[in-house]
Amino acid sequence: MSRIAYVNGRYVRHAEACVHIEDRGYQFADGVYEVCGIRDGRFMDEELHLARLRRSLDESRIGLPMPLSSLRHVLREVVRRNRIVNGLVYFQVTRGVAPRDHPFPSASVKPALVVTAKRINEARVRNAVEKGVAIVTMPDQRWARRDIKSVALLPNILAKQAAREAGAYEAWLLDTDGYVTEGSSTNAWIVDQQGRLVTRPAGHEILSGVTRHVLLETARQEGVEVVERLFTADEARAAREAFISASSAIIIPVVRIDDAAIGNGAPGSLTMRLRDAYLTYGKLT
Length: 285
Fold this sequence. Notes:
It is built from 8 helices and 15 strands. The chain is of the alpha+beta class. It folds into 2 domains: 4-120, D-amino Acid Aminotransferase, Chain A, domain 1, CATH 3.30.470.10; 125-281, D-amino Acid Aminotransferase, Chain A, domain 2, CATH 3.20.10.10. Helix 6 crosses helix 8. The longest helix has 15 residues, at 46-60. The two termini are 26 Å apart.
């Protein structure tokens, strides 16, 4: 079956989908995006993703391409046409098409919308969850507004590639004081020696992940003490457990950071408990 994409008002074959050469997303990375998980044919935490999209658009001073009710319909139609049961839907809004110039184009230029959907590699995710993954640390070289889910991801891509070339699954990025900010495409978590769940506070330094938000609520519902504070790479390497979170896989245990095994070198019990609990607390629509 051919994949189907939505591009600026039209459903088209994925292989034939295209945007204008002067789309500002292509020229300037002048746009934002969201990725929402699909589980058993239903959207995971959809309202939180749409709220974050609105926030990213507002912070970037980009308008909505259509009312949210219409966007919800488009998202569902793309998922339906691609017959996605377990997967991801990606939606991207740019400032639109205009002659290349750094200032904003005129108000008459309409924001551009692209939506795609795909299945996830469930076997790959299952293997990562069961065995855990390795992390490497490196300096954070991204811009100062990481709370905006911008399509400008070159530093993230370079960090992810460096991790893969080092034989690791993900990179944890360090600020100038040696504190972990987040992963190249994930949020970072540790369980300290007192059994507390620790993650960096939301702010301009990290993307406040939707899965992160739900996991914080999940942990509290489960009676786990949660501490939102800074932690160093050294503290992470000495932690009882560690994991990463993202909409694509919820939680993946971390069993090695740089050259240090985490805990006993196997996925931690609290990590796995929280992953199971998320499937209860996460909202499906």
